[in-house]
Amino acid sequence: MSTITATNEIDKHQYKKTPLTTYDLGWILLNIGMAIGAGTVVVPVQIGLKGLWVFVAAFLIAYPATYMLQNLYMKTLSESDICEDYSNIISQYLGKNWGMMLGILYFIMLVHGMFIYSTAIIYDSASYLNTFGVTDSVLSDSVAYTLIVLTALIFVASRGEQLLFKVSGPLVVVKVSIIVLLGVIMIPHWDFNNIKAFPGIGDFARDVLLTIPFAFFSAVFIQILNPMNIAYRKREENKEIATYKAIRVHRIAYITLISIILFFSFSFSLSITYEQALEAFNLNISALAMAAKVIPGELVHIMTVLLNVSAVVTAFFGIYLGFQEAVKGILVNIIQRFIPEERINHKVLGVSVYVFIVLLLTFWVSLGFSVVIFFHIASPLYGIVSCLIPCYLVYRVQKLHKFKGLQAQCVLIFGLLLVISPFFKFFE
C-alpha cells in the first residue's frame, strides 16, 4: 500500500513539472479573449454612472470570488467519469432529469452571453462605420447587415478550437497590447474631477450591489471552461493530468486578465465624465465607441475601434464553443430518450444548430435591447449556474465532498449576492 502511495506522489510531482505548450497558450489566449469582451468595455460606463468608490468596493468583492467560483466549477466538472457536455456531466452526478433541467439553465446562461456579444458587435460596428463616414446611416437597424455579419462570425466559430486558436490568438495579442497602451495614452486625459464624492452609506451599499455584476462580467469566462475541460480530457489519457493542465491555464489566464482590466478600467474611467457615460448608456454603446466620438486624436480613435472589435469578436468566438456544446447536449439528451444515440445523425444536427443560432441572434439584435440593463437581468442566472449549482453538487455528491470548505462557502455567498443584486435597481 505504501509503495502505491509513494508511486502516486511521484507521478503527481512529475506532472506538475509539465511545461506549458503552445496548446496551453492557445487556451490561455482564448480564455482571456472570452473575458475581455462586452463586459470589459461596458465597465467604464458603469463606473462613470456610479463612481469610482463604488467600483473599488465592487471589484474587491467580485474579482476574488470570480476566481474561486470558476476554480470550484472546473473541479466539480473534472471529477466526472465521462467528460462530455454539461448536461451529460450533471446527469452522471444527479440523473438524467436533473441533467436536462440544469443543462437548460446552463444553456440560458450561454444564450445571455451570445445575446450580449452579438448586440455589441452589431451596434458598435455600425456606430464606427457611421462615425468614420463609411456609411451615411447606422446599419444596426438593418436586418440584412445583422444577418450577414452574424452568419460570417458563426461560420468561423463553428469550425472548431484549432481554427479559433489561429483566428483568436493574434486578435487577443493585439487587443491586450492595445488595452495596455490605451490605458497609458489615456493618462494625460485624466481628470480627477470625474471622481464623484463618496455617496451616503445607503446609496453606496445599493450601488455596490448593482455594480458587482459588472465587475463579475468584466472578468468571468466560465462559459468556456467546460469546453476547455472536455478538450483536455480528450487530449490526455490521465484525468489528473488533464485537470491539472486545465486549472493551470485558468489560473494564468485569470491573473493576467485582472491585471489588465484594473489598469484599463481606472485609466479610462478617469477620462470620461458622468455626462459622457450617461450618453453611452442611452445610445446603447460601449465606452470605447463613445471615446471615438469625444476624445481627440486619430490614433486613439483607431485603437479604440481595433480594441472594441477584437474584444467582442474574440469573446463571441470563445462563448460559441460552450453555446454550441450546450445546444447539442440538450438536443442529444432529448433525442436519445426516443432513439439510440448511435442512430443520431450528428452532421445534420450540427447544421441545424448553426442555422438555429444565426436566426436566433439576428432576431434578438433586431429587438435593440439595452446591453447594460441585460447585465443586471442575467446576474441571478449566473449566480445560480456558476455558484449555487456547483456548491449544491459539492454538498450533495459524495465524491465531491472533498471540495467543502471556505472556498465553497465564499462562492455560495457570492452566488446569493448575484441573485439579489438586480432587485436593488428598484431602489435607485
Automatic annotation (TrEMBL):
Compartment(s) of residence: Cell inner membrane
InterPro entries, from UniProt?
Amino_acid_transport_2
Q: Its topology with respect to the membrane?
A: Multi-pass membrane protein
Q: What's one GO BP annotation on this UniProt entry?
A: amino acid transmembrane transport
Quick check: keyword Nucleus in the entry? no
- Main subcellular localization, coarse class? membrane
Q: Name one GO cellular component term.
A: plasma membrane
- The keyword Cell inner membrane appears for this protein: yes
Which keywords annotate this record? Cell inner membrane, Cell membrane, Membrane, Transmembrane, Transmembrane helix, Transport
Membrane-spanning segments? 25-45, 51-69, 104-123, 143-160, 172-190, 210-232, 252-274, 299-323, 344-367, 373-394, 406-424
Query: What name does this protein carry?
Result: Transporter
Source organism of this protein record: Vibrio marinisediminis
